Structures are given as structure tokens and as C-alpha cells.
Amino acid sequence: MIKIIIFVVAYLVLAPLVGGFLAGIDRIISARMQGRVGPPVLQPFYDVLKLREKEDITVNKVQDFYVTCFFIFVLVTGGIFFAGGDLLLVIFTLTLASVFLIVAAFSSNSPYSQIGAERELLQMLAYEPMVLLTAIGFYIVVGSFEVRQIVATDSMSFLPLIGVFFGFLFILTIKFRKSPFDLSMSHHAHQELVKGLVTEFSGKTMALIEVAHWYENIFLLGFIFLFFANGTIWGAVIGVVVCLAAYFLEVFIDNCFARMKWQVAINSAWIVALVLGMINLFIVYLV
């Protein structure tokens, strides 16, 4: 119990710091790839502090309520994951968090926010099958949905689930809101819907959304870590290195591809889930 409490507290305290730092490095790398100097590495933290000082201007009060629920459920999702809980419950709470953000965007009655919310729903439709297949893959290999048992297993799940790994890596582009699948919103200035899903959010509400995304990114990288965890220090080191490599791969992809249509996002994500995910699980099940 003490170990669980330590991991959860560490996530709640360190995740926004690491997530904000990675976001700052993301901006610098993106700027250098575009021939610019880029902002300081701590710029994301400066932006959040500036948003916290701005006057709250919201369309309606229920909007703030839904965003607060989104933030809370993101924290709950990461808390369950790093406490070693059930992967299916983790996926359910993460989906519920996304639903709260979508409802918040719909409640603003802004055409930009509503189009962004509709695209967010389409993105959920695209990535959810692969996320579920990832959890099922861990169950087939390890025999449990519990994160604590997956981490404590004697062998890495990467080789048996190599197809699932690359499938999950593919849908991370959608979850990280990177091009070519930054359909509903983007953290960079190349979004034709102004700010899409979060157009009508500002001040403390927008700061809460930014911090929630930092939490979410760290939690998603935790999924990558599970593929390499084997109860040893070397497994943990390899897992962390691969997590960082996966994040910077997404940054590279973000700066090398133009945004695609939502049809491409759904079709490609489902094809990847079918080819890499389902076939991999079928082979592992037979073996």
C-alpha cells in the first residue's frame, strides 16, 4: 500500500513537470526543424502561469464544470495506472475524461468548438479499437489486466506483442494531437479551425486543459513502458529510453506531414488495428 501511495503521489507531482518539460523540448525541436530558434524550454510553464493570471471569460459556467471533470478524470486515470490497477478501468476512465472535454466544447455553441468536438469524437472512434487490443494483448501474454502484474512479469511483452506495440505507436499520433492527425485541435499554429476543440476556452480553464494534457501524455507513455517492463532495472531503463524515443518520433512525424482528412485517420487506424493488432493477437493466442 505504501508503494502504491508513493507511485500515485509521484505521478501527481512529477507528471506535469516532466510533461511540461517535454512540451518545451517539442517546441524547440519543431522550431529548429523549421529553421527557427524557438522559445525557451520552460515556455510551456510560462504560458500556463500567464493563463492563470488572465481574466476568466467563459461562455457559460457549465463549461468550466465539464473541463474540471475532464481534469479530475485524467488524474484518476493516471492514478489508477500508476497504482497498478486494471487496464480496462484505465481505458474506461480515460474515455470518460475525453467525453467531458467534448461536452464542454459542445456547450459553448461556437461553430469552431463544435466542429472540433465532432472531430474529437471521430478520433476516439479511430483510436479506441487499438487501445482495447493493446489491453487484450497484455492479458493474453501475461494473463492479467493488472498493471502491477504486467510490470512484474519475468519477460518483456515487446517481442510477443511487437505488432500491437507498433499499432499503439501509430495511434499515439492521434492521442498526442500531432500531424497528420491533429484534426480536433493542435498545440502548434497550423490548425485551420483556429484552436478547434478549445477555441472558446481561456484563462484558468485553458491552463487546466494544458496541464491535463501533460498528465495525459505521461500516462500514455506509461503504456509504451509496459511493453519493456520485466521486473528488472534494465527493463525499466530500456522502457524509459523507448518512451523518450517514441515521443521524439511523434514530434518528428508532426513536422514532416500535413494534416489529413478524418476519413484517412479512421481508415488507417482501423487497418493498423486489424493488420498489426488482430493478427498479432491471433498468432500469440495460437502459440
TrEMBL record:
Name of one Pfam family that matches: NADHdh
Topology in membrane: Multi-pass membrane protein
Main location: membrane
Lineage: superkingdom: Bacteria
Membrane-spanning intervals of the chain: 6-25, 65-82, 88-106, 126-145, 157-176, 233-252, 264-286
Name of the protein: NADH-quinone oxidoreductase subunit H
Any single GO CC term annotated in Swiss-Prot or TrEMBL for this entry: plasma membrane
InterPro entries per the UniProt record, alphabetical: ComplexI_Subunit1, NADH_UbQ_OxRdtase_su1/FPO
Keywords annotated in UniProt: Membrane, Transmembrane, Transmembrane helix
The keyword Transmembrane helix appears for this protein: yes
Organism expressing this protein natively: Hominibacterium faecale
Localization of this protein: Membrane
